[in-house]
Design brief:
The chain has no helices and 11 strands. By secondary structure, the chain is mostly beta strands.
């Protein structure tokens, strides 16, 4: 069983920054991909960024240059540094982990990010 716990969400003004953290525990197989999705009110969940155990990170186009994802493989932790936040970044951010070659994904409980304009 894999457990992912996020932290770091909150309320911030437009132009501000937040740093999200996600800690994984349990039986975690490597290699794997960890990252973040988000879901805005009334919208589908969308990929924000992801990074593999030994690969380069990838970002959704709207996050490039503003968000930075990083991970610590030894501790199964991933972070998302979010700068220059916009009101459209508001939503629930979910951490995920996907073992390479597996069909299933593991999800955290989500953390709310609210950007006020």
């Amino acid at each position: 069983q894999v457990r992912l716990v996020e932290s770091g969400g909150g309320l911030v003004q437009a132009g501000g920054s937040l740093r999200l953290s996600c800690a994984g525990s349990g039986t975690i197989f490597s290699p794997n991909v960890m990252g973040w999705y988000r879901q805005a009110p009334g919208k589908q969940r969308e990929l924000v960024a992801e990074v593999g155990s030994g690969g380069a990170p990838t970002y959704a186009d709207s996050m490039k240059g503003r968000f930075t994802i990083s991970r610590d493989n030894s501790k199964d932790r991933v972070w998302l540094q979010m700068n220059s936040l916009k009101s459209e970044d508001t939503g629930v951010y979910y951490c995920f982990l996907r073992p390479v070659g597996a069909l299933s994904m593991y999800w955290g409980q989500g953390t709310q990010v609210t950007v006020s304009s």
